[in-house]
Protein: FeS-binding protein
Amino acid sequence: MKITQKIGLGVFLLCLLLFNALLFMGQFELTAQQLEQTIKQEHVAVLKQELQPMLGKTYSSSFAFATDFNQYLDNYNEEQQRSQQWDRVIWDDYVFALTKVASQGFVQSNKLLLLFLTVVLGAAGALLYILPKHRGEPAGVRNNGVMFSSNKSRGWVGITLGVYLTAVYILLYWYPEYLVNWTMLVDPLSRALSGGPASQWFLYGTLYTLAILVMGVRMFRKYKGNAYQLVRTSSVMFFQLSFAFLIPEILVLLNKPWQDLKNIWPLDYDFYFDYSVASMLGGGAVGMFMLIWGTLLALVGVPVFTYLYGKRWYCSWVCGCGGLAETAGDPYRHLSDKSLKAWKVERWLVYPILVIIVVITVMTIANYFTDFALLEEYTNVLHQWYGFLIGAAFAGVIGVGFYPLMGNRVWCRYGCPLAAYIGIVQRFKSRFRITTNGGQCISCGNCSAYCEMGIDVRWYAQRGQNVVRASCVGCGICATVCPRGVLKLENGPEQGRITDIPILTGNDSIKVLH
Structure:
């Protein structure tokens, strides 16, 4: 390892260590005035009484402060529930906001300095490590150490990273009060973009975007000889930085609804939920544009663009989930399960999830036009469970946390309803295919090894068959690593797109239907 890389890795690890240590720093002291300014007026009197032991008390960490707050609030709510006074139960989640306003001390007073010492300097260290290492790799190289790396082959480094990412996602989705110190670091950036303080979601968006940008540079270095990979990587970096991060925050600054204009239903599963529709309708002409744009994109844009360019137009060029998978997740792409059993599980998971969100959306829209008289209570329960199980646990915790364990496209392959929707169109009505030249295939297996979607590309290449699969995201890595130029991504006439169709038999073998 070169000296520059060692310095870069050392800087990154030190910054990461400081970043994690920040969670246990600072002091937290809640005053009555802060309580009044943060919560709803109807809850002030009750919480002043219930939280009296906390007011003016100094806590040494956000963990201690939040634990006390949750205990006092839970005791109060349980008492109201036992006495059947449901109207007095406080359902609002105040713990994150109160933990943040109660913060004081070193972290609160040195936000910009700590942001530089952790996030900015850490990104610089990562780049110092990346730039000298990836100067372009020869096509077709499979045994380049990746299969033996403790980070990239389910070794102890990879397992540790997976556990760390999973823990961070759990805190982010369900215990954001413990990440208050991290959130405060990006307060200045949030105020500059949207005019308000940072939430845990702004923190997430900042780190998410930074990961795509930094690891996008790695993609530039690793695949610098391949024009398709360079353009594709540039595209996901652009859409994440502009459409997913900057534009939504600027919309908030202009007092318009927050909206990622590239996020499409059903991936954006709450797009038609009552609170989302109300927000857009309350946003004037801009909000109405968002509603119409999102609807046209889902009903017209998806089939048209998929017909012309296949699944890759969104999953590999635009989508934020795909953007993170293709940049930060690229080192783990070879870990995807290529077995027939995995293919069966994939189909039995992703398509039912699409059906479920379609049913939920239809129920929601029906309720909206019937003044919420149709199954309102059950619809809200479905909203909550889908958001918890699919939107958070699957897409976030498993989808990213399991990169080092199951590959970089776990969510896209097994859970994303938009991937299922686009995949159906691609499979049956699209000009996209990966063509193969069976006479040139040497059966090296590089294409299958590096397919992030678990497709056995070599099986098709050996037979000279077009690769036409609903799951293929058109990333093009199979063609990039092929040493003989056997594979080629094409958009052509539908006729002749499928020559032989592989089908599964009961004994898990593959037969070919002519």
Q: What stands out?
A: The mean pLDDT is 91. The longest helix spans residues 340-369. The first strand starts at residue 27 and ends at 29.
